[in-house]
Amino acid sequence: MPHHHHTNPSHPPAARKLLSWRRVVAACAAVAALVLLLAAAPATEDPSRWRSYLMGPLPGGTRKETVAAAVVARSFAGPAASTSSPAEAPLSSLGEINLSARIAPAAAPSMFLVPSSSPTENFDDGSMEEPEHPEIKRNLPKESAPFLKKEPISSGLPTISPDANGEHVMDTKSVLPLTPEQAPLWSTAADEELIYAKKEITNTPLTSDDPDLYAPLFRNVSIFKRSYELMERLLKVFIYHDGAKPIFHSPELKGIYASEGWFMRLMETNQNFVVRDPNRAHLFYLPYSSRQLEHNLYVPGSNSIEPLSIFVKNYIDLISAKYPYWNRTKGADHFFVACHDWGPYTTKLHDELRKNTIKALCNADLSEGIFIRGKDVSLPETFLRSPRRPLRDIGGRPAAQRTILAFFAGQMHGRVRPVLLKYWGDKDADMRIYSRLPHRITRKRNYVQHMKSSKYCICPMGYEVNSPRIVEAIYYECVPVIIADNFVLPFDAALNWSAFSVVVPESDVPKLKEILLAIPESRYITLQSNVKRVQKHFLWHPNPVKYDIFHMILHSVWFSRVNQIR
Fold first, then answer.
1. Where in 167-315 does DSSP place strands (E)?
2. What is the number of alpha carbons within 13 Å of residue 410 lying toward its C-beta?
3. 544: nearest Cα among 259, 229, 267, 336
4. Which stretches make up the Exostosin GT47 domain (predicted)?
5. Neighbours of 3 (CB within 10 A)
6. How far apart (Å, rounded) are the C-alpha atoms in residues 307 and 303?
7. pTM for this one?
8. How far, in Å, CA of 505 to CA of 484, rounded?
9. Where does 350-428 have alpha helices with state H?
10. Distance CA 409, CA 396 (A)
11. Distance of CA 252 to CAs 91, 297, 390, 529, 540, Å?
């Protein structure tokens, strides 16, 4: 039975007075923080919008709203309160006070001590796709400043692109340069190392003597090899410890968002690149999960991701007030990794995060004005069925035993897939296009077996430009046919996708079979062989190996940062 004593008899009178005094001080501090917050709030801001963050959900609110508020509270009151980053002393505690005042003080239910599993649906076609919310794009948070306009091309690292004859020619087009506001407030030894690396990469001689790198797969194998070597030798990454599970430090290793989870897990356990001293770092990793943001903060039926965007903005405000590192470059040496479709949109309330930070995104869509080619990184979307066996089912039939011309099975969302089904669904024996594999077919050959037996695997965009089928096709050694206008392909700065894939404009879907049949058999054999060669650059290993997907992602971020340095 619970006790209802007003005082604890075990405490002597002096101790009881001290406890009472501490309670009074704590209450006064809380009231003072609230007054400061309200005084600092913009006059145009609707106070009712913050009420749920200050006081928790109103009576009658949904359970999801209650849980969301609790998760927000836990995420900022977690490790940051007990285990600070090994950095300089906080500049001010005001940012932390303001942030905590805006969120609900309720304790999180125990179910959120461990990240919840994905509600991924297992369809008969063997594909794993989570239903998204396309209406979200009509209700995005209003940005606080116009999108970053494209800057004139300036001096950056050159690349080498294949010409029509397969020869390699110098491509002098470079990446987006630093804008004036991104110049560091002061220089560090890490900056000098980046400048050294940039000179070394720019002046690297042509080479093709690495048996582990197949030159036709790369835009410029010499530049890639030298840059990778310098990354292995020099790169140091600092990881912020602020933030609690499930949104921070909580990798999800299964499903279609596995890329961000696997990278987080391998980065946080890495001993080669991670440093405890932020003053030595070339890059700063923001270890939050876009998948967990959606899973824990999005209120079903609200059609709004504003709570997610506010959460991310407040997190950046916290670390920029607590530590000097964000402010030194205005976020240009910081990066995050997000595979959820909403990952780009959650940055829209923080100008520096959206404009300056290196964003590794599965949703690498140029048309949205958020992803910046040459600065941001296109993240491969990898669907993993078994976290304990990430290499399960890798491989496929030899080219001569692939009897199906083209295959696709999946949900009919987005603008491309319904058109694909309209023209090719169950209309041609060579074009195996389904909205869902019929049971009469799966009894003989399931989804994975279809991919392993097809020459070309059709990879149309869904709600967004990215698709897990691209990497799935590579896993099963099927040539990917990518249909997604404005999509920047993964590792675009390094890989020559024309060597192992086919890109078809959305407008050419009615001519899809004609396009595929026009590819000579010898060309197909080369493409399929190159798919097998490039496969190792997209594989996850519990213990990362050289040139695997973990290192390719990290190299892409490193290469972007080197490009930005003056």
1. 168-171, 237-239, 283-285
2. 25
3. 267
4. 232-516
5. 5
6. 11
7. 0.77
8. 7
9. 351-355, 417-424
10. 18
11. 33, 16, 13, 32, 14
- Amino acid identity, position 199: K
**Structure-block tokens of residue 227:** 């840059």
Q: List per-residue pLDDT tens for the chain, 566 residues long.
A: 444 443 343 444 444 444 344 454 455 455 444 444 444 444 333 433 333 332 233 334 444 554 455 555 556 555 444 344 433 333 222 233 233 333 332 332 222 223 333 333 333 344 555 555 556 665 666 554 333 333 333 334 544 343 333 333 334 343 444 444 467 888 899 999 999 999 999 999 987 678 999 999 999 999 999 999 999 999 999 999 999 899 999 999 999 999 999 999 999 999 999 999 999 999 999 999 999 999 999 999 999 999 999 999 999 999 999 999 999 999 999 999 999 999 999 999 999 999 999 999 999 999 999 999 999 999 999 999 888 899 888 999 999 999 999 999 999 999 999 999 999 998 999 999 999 888 888 888 999 999 999 999 999 999 999 999 999 999 999 999 999 999 999 999 999 999 999 999 999 999 999 999 999 999 999 999 999 999 999 999 999 999 999 999 999 999 999 999 97
Structure tokens at 202: 């720019």
* Geometric angle at alpha carbon 510, from 505 and 513, rounded to 5°: 90
Residue boundaries of the structural domains of the chain: 189-384+547-564, 399-538
Measured distance CA(22)–CA(135) in Å, rounded: 49
Q: Contacts by 206-213 with C-beta closer than 8 Å and gap 24+?
A: 212/546, 212/547, 213/547
Residue found by looking up tokens 């195996």 in the block: 432
* Residue 559 exposed, middle or buried by CB count within 10 Å (0-12, 13-18, 19+): buried
Position of tokens 């987005």? 414
Distances (CA, A) of 58 to 50, 63, 555: 12, 11, 47
Say if residues 489 and 403 touch (Cβ distance below 8 Å).
no
- d(C-alpha 256, C-alpha 40), whole Å: 41
Q: How far apart are CA 188 and CA 199, in angstroms?
A: 17
SS3 274: strand
DSSP assignment letter at 365: B
Are 102 and 314 spatial neighbours (Cβ–Cβ below 8 Å)? yes
Q: Which CATH superfamily is domain 399-538 in?
A: Glycogen Phosphorylase B; (3.40.50.2000)
DSSP-derived secondary structure letter, 331: T
